[in-house]
Write a structure and sequence with these properties.
Blueprint: H1 2-20, H2 31-71, H3 85-88, H4 94-103
Length: 110
């Protein structure tokens, strides 16, 4: 039963491929000329798509990145400040070490 189902799917895919495939024949056996002609015909369409779709999308992404950087937006979530890694390994004395560094010379750390 399973083998029959696999063969059915194979033949459906094969029939679909045969229906959708279009044979391409080069005139007089000149394959390079046919490829060049196809490129010449499609180059204007490719340029139009790049000018009207790719460059505006790229400009929009760069503008968003620029304004996000300008506004100083940061990603959501916890942030690890690597400059304070000594305080993060912590224990109950971490808060005292932070205050001892910021409070001034008259502060006594117990």
């Amino acid at each position: 039963m399973k083998r029959k189902r696999i063969f059915q799917m194979f033949f459906v895919v094969l029939a679909l491929a045969l229906c959708l495939c279009v044979p391409a024949f080069a005139a007089g056996g000149d394959v390079a000329g046919a490829v060049e002609q196809t490129w010449t015909d499609a180059s204007s369409q490719i340029k139009t798509v790049v000018d009207n779709v790719v460059f505006p999308a790229l400009s929009m992404v760069l503008a968003i990145a620029f304004f996000a950087k300008l506004a100083g937006l940061r990603p959501a979530g916890p942030q690890l400040h690597l400059g304070h890694h000594r305080d993060l390994r912590g224990g109950h004395h971490a808060e005292r070490r932070i205050h001892a560094r910021t409070a001034g010379p008259d502060f006594k750390c117990i």
